[in-house]
């Protein structure tokens, strides 16, 4: 099992490259060349799901439809995640660069940044950065326009098809899949939708080459990743680290010496207890994460943690499909009843079954992933749920 | 009311009159009025030539598109776990004491509304809150008293 030592990397925020040169060089390449670079790098989506970015671009490029779009998903709502805000604050031009390169690769003339409403204070800065970026593109002679759209406080809009619905002026309710966005996304046209961080990596791969990126990380998780570290840690913040380290290594660096559990991947991710730190790899071969790392020490009640997550899902469920709408409500009522002693401890097994049912029957990733945190917390901290 | 009519018209002139303009228009109304009244919703429906039910359905989906009267300053305190661990409950009590209202309520002078919200994306600097679009992080009861005091006096 690979256990890389913790290695800090500085690709995302580094200022080494001459921005315009990188962009000019990349935009001179053919669509096939760009897609090959991204495929060769092994880059996978950094929003959490981890779909190979090069494949997404390739599928969209293959569509014959003349109208296509690039969408940057900046609806960062996963509890414990704040990296996209940091990236958009410090290096927005790299995000836009990644979008333009994607536009060249798939043949799109328009890109959209969908920014969550909670980050409205960034709007003016992003608009200024966009103006500069459009001027740079004009100098390079590449026709691509990026528009900024604001979200309005709905976690579910981070789900790609819900995000398209919101962009089109509807309620942010996820669509049925297939068709996938590469065929029918925004305005039902072929669309590449990538996370903020993914787009910056795509840009950086055009600078450093696919090999240097590929050489970082492990077979399943190439490259580095930006982690949002919070909770019981003396050094909370944003860290870009090479993928493939064990959770034990991570906790040695970031824990406060008394770490009981780490929630990897936010409320929709997995809770890993201390006894499993050693054998858990942070990456797609172990526990995948969009970057959220919440650290809990032994003074924390895991019941409170779980209750907070379940309440979060109950509120943020769009209500469209029954498994998620009713499931989240029942999970919340269920753990409360067990805690109060109104239901026996065995009722937790019934709730676990409900969570598993949601995993296979909910319409979108939100409802499907409630079981991740629910089951991993209930299984590992059963006594805390009961007493 | 005539002002709302005029506002909706201006926003429609700016953002367009198709379905995709709906969210930007509703956001524009919230920026100006702090909330979207029933009257504003029917005005938007008329201006965009769509059913008022569609406007209502869309507006009520989003937590930042308030459809109930709100104060001039809407305080949104993050209640997600990491902020909660860093003392959010104490902050909430301080806010309730200062404003003499509970979560979900608006002060009598219509100046402040107090709400709780889900993750604001400042987990490393909790507790965090928004007052309208402005962010305040690593807040303590003392800091909150100062901030609110400033809003009460100077704004």
Task: Give your account of this protein's structure.
The complex is a heterodimer of chains A (387) and B (155). With 387 residues, chain A is an alpha/beta fold. Chain A is 45% helix and 14% strand. Chain B is built from 7 helices and 4 strands, in the order H-H-H-H-E-H-H-E-E-E-H. In chain B, strand 3 (129-131) and strand 4 form a beta hairpin. The model of chain B has no long low-confidence stretch (mean pLDDT 97). The A-B interface holds A 76-82, 84-85, 116-121, 149-155, 166-173, 228-232, 236-238, 292, 294, 300, 304-305, 308-309, 312, 315-316, 318 and B 18-24, 26-27, 57-58, 61-65, 79-82, 84-85, 117-126, 130, 133-135.
Offer a quick outline of the entry.
The complex is a heterodimer of chains A (387) and B (155). Chain A has 387 residues and is an alpha/beta fold.
Alpha-carbon distance between the two ends of chain B: 25 Å
Q: How big is the Rg of chain A?
A: 21 Å
> What's the SSE pattern of chain B?
HHHHEHHEEEH
Q: Report the sheet with the most strands of chain B, covering strand number, pairing sense and barrel closure.
A: 4 strands, mixed
Estimated share of beta-strand residues of chain B: 5-15%
User: Care to count the β-strands of chain A?
Assistant: 9
The low-confidence runs of chain B, each spanning 5 or more residues with pLDDT under 50, are none
Show the helix and strand layout.
The complex is a heterodimer of chains A (387) and B (155).
Chain A: H1 19-28, H2 31-41, H3 53-62, E1 69-74, H4 83-90, H5 92-106, E2 110-115, H6 123-140, E3 145-150, H7 160-167, E4 191-195, H8 196-208, H9 210-214, E5 224-231, E6 237-242, H10 247-254, E7 259-264, E8 270-273, E9 292-297, H11 302-316, H12 322-340, H13 347-361, H14 365-380, H15 382-386
Parallel strand pairs in A: 1-2, 1-4, 2-3, 5-9
Antiparallel strand pairs in A: 5-6, 7-8, 7-9
Helix pairs in contact in A: 1-5, 2-3, 2-5, 5-6, 5-8, 11-12, 11-14, 12-13, 12-14, 13-14
Chain B: H1 2-15, H2 22-33, H3 38-48, H4 52-59, E1 73-78, H5 81-85, H6 88-99, E2 112-117, E3 129-131, E4 134-136, H7 141-154
Helix pairs in contact in B: 1-2, 1-3, 2-3, 3-4, 6-7
